């Protein structure tokens, strides 16, 4: 039996045992992975934001990972990337992301766009189950962690996932200067 201490006081089960806590694209993606290595726990949706979640459930903030969708524009084309960094850091949007995405303008994707494109709830977007072809950039701290907490695609659940599982996602790449 796998345990997920990174979830603090929460009781977790193998993620695919609770598909009601997963957005449909997340459940579909997990079915194609070593899903037994991912656990999901039910949470109060009002506590889905990282700081509130960690405080309420005793999850270490240094093991929480935030997934943000960044949009860049160049020549009338919009390019999207998912950036995953530890909650104790921030995504270097105007530096590393802008350079690597090779765009003139870059910003966090508007909430409505991020939700519509991913099929996930705002505040629960996760790197698992993102649209095909999207790059997924991970900071080394995320990729090297034995487990991190990330969204489940909903505000009702949180996933505990090993960093190497995230690094094995389609389009995933470890970006050394992603986080500041």
UniProtKB/TrEMBL annotation:
It comes from the Bacteria. Residues 45-164 form the YbaK/aminoacyl-tRNA synthetase-associated domain. InterPro entries: YbaK/aa-tRNA-synt-asso_dom_sf (IPR036754), YbaK/aa-tRNA-synth-assoc-dom (IPR007214). Pfam families: tRNA_edit. This is YbaK/EbsC family protein.
